[in-house]
Each structure stands twice: as C-alpha cells, then as structure tokens.
Amino acid sequence: MKKKAGMKIKIWGARGSYPTPGSDFAYYGGNTSCVETRFGNRLLIFDAGSGIISLGKQIEEEQPKIKRILIFLSHTHHDHIIGLPFFKPLWMQNTRIDIFGPDLFDTNLSDIISTWFSSPLAAFFIEDVAAKITVHSINQWDNIILPPGAGDVVIVRKKLEYVTVGKEDAILSIHKNFSHPKGGSFSYSLKYMNKKFSYVTDTENYVGGDKKVCDFIQGSDLLFHDCQFTDEDYPSHQGFGHSSLGYVLAHTKKAAVKKLVLFHLNPEYGDEKIRAMETSAKAIIPEAEAAREGNFYSL
Ligand SMILES: [Zn+2]
Ligand SMILES: [Zn+2]
Fold first, then answer.
1. Where are the domains of the chain?
2. How confident is the model at residue 150 (pLDDT cuts 50, 70, 90)?
3. Which of 88, 212, 277, 281 is spaced 20 to 30 Å from 3 by Cα?
4. Distance 161 CA to ligand 2 centre (A)
5. What are the Cα distances from residue 28, in Å, to 12, 51, 127, 281, 283?
6. For residue 148, how far is its CA from the centre of ligand 2 (angstroms)?
C-alpha cells in the first residue's frame, strides 16, 4: 500500500522548566520539550529537551537510514537543550546534524552550543562528537524552505511572495515572542502539502490576546501551545514568560485552529491537575488535549 504523504508528529517531551520523574507524572510524562516531525525524507526536531534522549535511541535503531537531522530550537533555556549532549546520533559517524535557532542575549547560537558542550559543563567538547554538526543562527525575518529529499535547506529573508516555492517544498516560518525572559523565544510554523503545524512555546499572555501570534497560527491544523498555568495560578506568575489556559483557548478560537495541544506543562502540576486542565479545555474546544509523551499526530 502506498504510504500516505503528509506530516507525522510525535511528542517525546512536553514538560516545562525541568524534567519531572515520578508516579505523579506517569500518565502525561516528565521529559522536557522535544517534538519529532517527519515528512518525505525529512526529520525535523523541535527543541532538544530531555525527551530527545529517547528519540535518539529510536534513531539509532533506524540507522543507517537517517543521514541528516534538523533541530530547531525555540531558545536555549536549559529545559530546551538539556538532552542534546545525550542525543545518540551525535555519536554516530556519517550523520549530519544541523541545529537552528536564535542568537539570544547578545550571544551567538554557535557560542551557546559550544559552551554547553564544553568542560566543566560537559565531559567533552563539541569537536569530540562523531557527527558533523553545523549550527545556524536564524532570525525572525527568515523563512526556511525545505525542498523534497534530505538535502540542504534554503534560508530566505525575503517575503514569501517574492520567493519561488516548489509544490513539494515545505516552508518553516518563524515568529519571535518578546514575552519570554530574558531574550524571547522563537515559535515555528511548518507548512507542507497544504497542512500547517505550529509550535508555540515559552510565550506569555497579552491582555486581549496577541494579534501577531494569532496571525502566525491562523488556520493551523495542529497547534502545540505553551500552557503552563491555570487561570487561577497565572496572576502570581505574571512575567514568568508562560501562558494560561484561558488565554490559550481564546487565542486558538480566534485563529481557527483545528486541533490544540496544551504544551510546556507545569512541572508542579501532577497528572490529576493536567487532566482537569484538559477537561476545561475540551469544554471550550472539543478538539483540545494536553500533550502526552508518545502521542502521535498525522496531518
Ligand atoms: Zn521552557
Ligand atoms: Zn524558556
């Protein structure tokens, strides 16, 4: 049977701030942000939280099939890069890993990654890994064109209407959230074969909603959105750089999103509290659910 073309998206980690092992977190999972996306011959990973460690083990089992891996970082807070040094493909020869993300806080992404992979923070240096790693600083004006196959991507700074895009090309767009301390974060939106997946994490409410985010996620078939706080808990955490449930729901309705996944779950909320948030979300948007490790979406 011919394989259905389209995007396949899998959650490997959806916990915010720090990993949460233990029985209170057994259902939704305790690994920090990592989302695998595949289409055609492409493998994209959004964020390299602790969830990327298990994904790396799966990729190892698939070798030698996967030669190239693209990692897109929302930003470089610990919870989004904590798994990177333990990602098995780093230690595989003949593997290319491209890491994309923002320069933050006046620091080049390449320098941030090199520091993370250096003594005394790590037991090795970036030069020690077996894979060929290339770090790409990108900014909020860039669009990234991913032609079919697994070859090089093209970073363009022009408006998309001035760029020739092939029918089978995927396009990754970026929105910069300035509402996450201290340097902001990137949200990503991936369009492939008339489907749209948006990944929006580590961003905080604006009263009345953020029109720019709304425009960015407009019409998404699937949206992963930061939802770290209940509406009750939000006021005492204003300024932490994360969203509350009521905001996410209002926002999602306005943007005509088809399916919403509550992401970047609060590390202090056990399964019971997350389930209650999920129930509240479903009452407003039936196609809403909380992120759970291992959940798989097909677009
Ligand atoms: Zn985070
Ligand atoms: Zn953060």
1. 8-298
2. confident
3. 88
4. 32
5. 11, 12, 36, 16, 20
6. 32
